[in-house]
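Consortium newsletter contribution from the modelling node. Members have asked for a concrete example of what our holo predictions look like. Here is one, prepared for the 2-acetamido-2-deoxy-beta-D-glucopyranose complex that several groups have been discussing at recent meetings.
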Amino acid sequence: MNFRCFKVFIAILLTFFSVSWVNAATKNEDRSFVLSSPFPSALETLQKQIGYTFKNIALLKRAMTHASFSEENNKALSILGGHVIESSVSLYSLEKDIDISAKDLNQVVLEISKVEASCTIDGMQLGLEKVVRVSPKTNSSAPIVVCSAFRAIFGAIALDTGKSDDAGNVFLKVHGRKVGRGFAM
Ligand SMILES: *[C@@H]1O[C@H](CO)[C@@H](O)[C@H](O)[C@H]1NC(C)=O
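And here is the predicted structure:
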């Protein structure tokens, strides 16, 4: 009887150890996969650069995927991101000066929305042209590609937190670190 109990005990022990060993082995495999693949490690770096860590990394992946690469792309995210950027800049401008004229506010929003200016510069500073996935025929340095990827980041953050304010704050930090152009902060 005692011997049987002992055998059962050993069997349980062995099962437990082999399961945890397999788990550990699988985890190590995942880890080396993550570290050695350029796209996931670029996403890690990007999150550090913008000072925001995604709960759902799939959203950032999608933000860094151009329409030429996949149907699961950043087109819609970049529209949301564009609105996030415009509203955070409007909010910031009005907080700074409640008496700002409609003309001046429109100008500020217009500047921030220009593809050739603000978002391409911001996107290039983050090195998005090296991160965004495009088809072999697409030039990932083209302003429209960099810009839509840049905007999509903030659409993705808004979805990740469920709050466009959070995304706007991340934008102001990313854009604001080296402002002067675009709009005065
Ligand atoms: C890609 O686009 C950038 C920016 O417009 C341009 O400077 C570069 O020459 C283009 N590269 C190719 C291979 O077309």
